[in-house]
Input
Amino acid sequence: MARSPASVRHRTSLGGTSLDEARRRLVFPLDFATYDEARAAASRVASSIGVLKIGLELFVREGPRAVQIGRDLGLDVFLDLKLLDIPQTVARTVAAAADLGVRYLTVHAAGGAEMMRRAAVEAGRADGLILLAVTVLTSLDDADLSSHGVQEGAAKQALRLAQLARGAGIRGFVTSPTEVQALRQALGKDALLVTPGIRPTLDGAPAAGAASNEDQKRTATPTGAVAAGADLLVIGRPIRDAADPPAAARSILQEIARALSAR
Output
């Protein structure tokens, strides 16, 4: 996807890492009910983020024009649909998403090896589309998994599903910050690791939207996630719910840059 001048505003070096490099790693979810709300929010923070994540709510309501928000702002688009269906349906959906020009698309690793293999084949035919396999949702903990019949806990289940996805030809993985280090060690430096559940602190206190983890049970700070080996950090509420979202985004961007320099 072509980059607009907005994508190169942060060239300043911070501790050895350019803010532009850090910016490419910051993903902002458009968790809004309408196109107008989403576009306004994205426009406010566009200079500090690299990727816009579009989830089920906005995509179901607004459809492909939600993707256009990212294209208009010169940002990569992360279409987070967590596809899980029979292999043929998922493969066709991947092809349809590729036609929209999105950069990242999620499939759920629980769909199995054949589903992911077919999805990977379709993604391979597209120009620049990267599939991300969702392992264990950050809203689940070991007790939740136990109730589903998974007795070994989130860490082992995330690794198991990531390895299944890798065997099917997928090289990107969505996992909580608490499993990132283990996945990095197991999958190597070429794996693309995406971490939701990021909750920054400001001056030692929880940032806006971070005082309560709400439905996120396995979380970490941006510094902790980067140190563990995360590549892309999905940070929504601490930016969206801040009194000054652009300032919050800039602060998080600087934290990511410092963490990258120290890694």
Summary: The first strand starts at residue 13 and ends at 14. The chain has twelve helices and twelve strands. The chain has one domain: 5-262.
